[in-house]
Amino acid sequence: MVSPAASSSSPRRSRGLAYLLVYVLLLACRVPAAAGVDSEFEDGISPKFPGCDNPFQKVKVMYWVGDDERSSLTGITARFGEMLPVTGTDSEKRKAVVPAPKTSCAKSSAPLASSIAVAERGECTFLEKAKTAESGGAAALLLINDEDDLQKMVCTQNDTVPDIAIPVVMVSQSAGRKILSGMDGGAKVDILMYAPEKPTFDGAIPFLWLMAVGCVACASVWSFVVVGDEDKNAPTLGGEENDDSEIVELKTKTALVFIVTSSLVLLFLFFFKSTWSAWLLVVLFCLSGLQGLHYVASTLIVRACERCREAKVTLPVLGNVTVVTLVILPLALIFVVVWAVHQNSPFAWVGQDLMGICMMILVLQVVHMPNIKVATALLVSAFMYDIFWVFISPFIFKKSVMITVARGSDEGPSLPMVLKMPKEFDTWNGYDMIGFGDILFPGLLVAFSFRYDRAHGKDLTDGYFLCLMIGYAFGLSCTYVGLYLMKSGQPALLYLVPSTLGTIVTLGARRGELSQLWNAKV
């Protein structure tokens, strides 16, 4: 939390805040570049034969309670059954009916003719449910899963060739509860389902790329260009004078702490997904965002107004407080509160991105990577962490742990530790995202390269900073190319670590400065 108390205790508070920022942002929230639903369900393992060889389709489930249209839900089609149309105009709104029994494993006593049967999972196979619903006259079957995720509805080698002529769709448990709650008291619920195709071009990615690259560049040069390295009177975390003791210098053992802590947090979020844990992350994000907004705004104002840095007032209990802090802090607090209240609004991403960028600029001023020995330990650990929890964890936990956590739940707030950009050309109106860790981890190395160049009198032509910025931009580009080609969630560090750490190690070796970079302290 921002505290404008006297400067005697500021370093201690700032150091504690810095550690909070590091562990919340660097360790707890590792989010892959995107979490693709379509590709995750194309397993290529389940048997395919005529009547059970449909591609899995991502389904938009629209529903109305009475005449009130609710937010659309996401579903997935089965290997069998009729394919859904790609546009809503080609589909038909139908009444939702819960069969009796509600699992649709026996002939329904409730009339299903021309309706969408909304059944629960369990007691019999997916095929049996579909056959029963179809024989009762249902126009489609909407199956509610027994967990907050989507399940592949496939055939087995022992199944006879199915002849299902109705669409079969599954939604998650939380999505199903929304539909069922709308039917409470006998209210009429209508459902319309279709499977829109994804556009070839994703216009949000270039803007997200610019935000990430620009954030790394700005944060790396901020202390020199905005604050001024020689300026020891610039406002810092507590609104007081600068102090070298506020810098948190990473150690080699941080790599081990990262692996253990972040893995435990990730497993906790995977096994105990709950609304309260999501809100805890939102609160931490708000506190960190408040600090970031205050720091960035204060340093910009002091840079533009030389006299503002000296203006202070004495307040009871708080002691000496800079006027800049007294003005900026309440405004930043209002901004954060408004975002927290309206975080589900269509334009909330603007506030989230602004707070996130300011927060990351602050973190890269407070946290320093002293040499590439520490960089190698930290980035290689993060690299292996991403590989394991995205690609290897499905063999242990039956699904990708990191992508499952990144996708979040239909209930409660979404995880805010990402920069996001709306997909304006996508029917799903979703977001492209990049996790803070994919900016901060390489950003620590890029910021080190800038400090190293200045300490050794290097410029852009013979230094390391420009090369690492190009490497980061190239690595991030490769991430999105991989996302497009593989059509699944990509751990960005898979590309960013080789393109940044590999670049500085290769250049250092060629210039004969690798030993100096390895043992530097800047």
Automatic annotation (TrEMBL):
Where in or outside the cell it occurs: the entry states:
Endosome membrane
Q: Where is the PA domain?
A: 97-179
Q: What is its main location?
A: membrane
What keywords is this UniProt entry annotated with? Endosome, Glycoprotein, Hydrolase, Membrane, Signal, Transmembrane, Transmembrane helix
> Matching Pfam families, A to Z?
PA (PF02225), Peptidase_A22B (PF04258)
Signal sequence, renumbered to the chain: 1-36
TM stretches of this protein: 207-227, 255-272, 278-305, 317-341, 347-367, 374-397, 433-452, 464-486
What are the GO BP annotations of this UniProt entry? membrane protein proteolysis
Tell me what topology the record assigns in the membrane.
Multi-pass membrane protein
Taxonomically, which superkingdom?
Answer: Eukaryota
Single annotated GO MF: aspartic endopeptidase activity, intramembrane cleaving
Does this UniProt record's set of keywords contain Glycoprotein? yes
Give a GO cellular-component term: lumenal side of endoplasmic reticulum membrane
Similarity comment text for this entry: Belongs to the peptidase A22B family.
Per the entry, what this protein does is: Intramembrane-cleaving aspartic protease (I-CLiP) that cleaves type II membrane signal peptides in the hydrophobic plane of the membrane.
Question: Would you tell me the protein name for this molecule?
Answer: PA domain-containing protein
